[in-house]
Amino acid sequence: MIHAELSTEAHARLEAMRRNATISSIVIAFLVITLILLVLGFFFMDPIFKETPVLVSYNNNVQAEEVVETKKVSTSTQQKPSAPSSSSAKVIAANTTSNLAVPVPEIDVPTPSTEFGNGDDFGDGWGTGGDGGGGGGGGFGSIPATMRERCSKQDRLQRLAEMGGTEQCEEAVLKALRWMKKTQAADGSWSGSKKSAMTGLGLLAYLGHCETPMSEEFGESCLKAITYLVNLSMKNDGKCADNVGDKHWPYEHAICVYALAEATTFCKQLNIPVPNLPEATQKAGQFLIDNQHKGGGWDYAYDESGNRGGDVSIVGWHIQALKAMKHTGLDFKNLKSCANKGLQYLEDKQNANGGFGYTGKNSLHPYFTLTGVGVLCFQMWDKGSSSEVRKGTAYIEKNTKLKWGTPDCDLYAHYYEAQAMMNRGGKQWKHYNSIMRDEVLKNQKADGTWLSTGHGASPMYHTALCTLMLEVYYRFLPGTGGGHWSLCFEQSQEKRPTGRFFC
To answer: b vs e for 338-364, b when ≥16 Cβ sit within 10 Å of the residue's Cβ?
Structure first.
């Protein structure tokens, strides 16, 4: 038998080969595992590094890019809002006719031919030149506290219950908003005459229910309305009216500024990018301030030199617009002094009986229909305890009436009175609510509109005013500082802080 035995040197070489083979196997295995991990990472890591959407605007052939920060709010119970159609995602850039694309961030969010009144209000004086006398929820935490209460269905229903409303009020508001959505024109406007004013009122009704461009049901309609008003301001260098040759256009302008300013506040706080919205609001708002009459009011055609000096009806819309402008955070020059001059103008229009006249202390009608206008303006600027407010609300409590189809159905007067009396609170609000609420509810038509009141104005005008009246239970109003919270105390036994609108 032959016995072969490796030499010591050969054995060493064999062991070295084994070690090298083992090391090579380990290295190959490590590389294979690394390659597998890289392949898997390519697929699973992709969503994390998705590109953020880009907002692209075109101005005079110069392309500007603005990165839009998107929000993701995790929820397992809410549906993602439907995206607005491309038809509503256009606005006009300043001094050009180029389009601006409006991307819609993916955000999961919780669930007047129009004639306005009778000449002493937002009325026949528009078309005829008559100068007669008379008269929540999740995602909303950044909105000013006074506006936030309308943004949660639960909060709205709670406010309704506390403040003398009913679930029927909420149902009536939704019916009206759905009619508005159905009848809105393709360009985002409403009505065939005074479109800018009607669109402003419609947008205010949406915002009064906390409907924004991201709302699931009304988002697209809301965005189209904002876009229409933005286009109007940017094309006309801040003038918001269909026809600035009509001397009554300051009514339209003030309503549009009011709506644009509220929209700016909502969209800014909710990170909803609407191109040129702040710029349009800035232009239109500053124009409003700069064209105040030397006497403190605002006159027809913004005439600053005439002896007429304006009227209480026009002043009312401008004072509301100024307060909404203040909430935007935009830098408006002389805003506070403008508001103070407006209030000084109103001081001289109040009769000894508490009622507010049209251009003086007296009324050409048995009832001073502009009393709510004067009262609300003082309340909005933290003068809820003033003698003007006390005398004015006492006059309304004693004299106001609301009966459909009669001369006592002046919805323009009641648009203001509903807000003024709610803001006053206590027994005065309780008395007014007993007059207003059910009369409005029972006169809504099946399609969501309201019956004509005999003033000849458009259905959109009446419907917007009634909707805003029924939203008064929770809709934003600036704090009065008046401390009249007795009704709230009676119902909730919880002290409400002055400066928030609950009463």
So the answer is: bbebbbebbeebbbeebbbbbbebebe
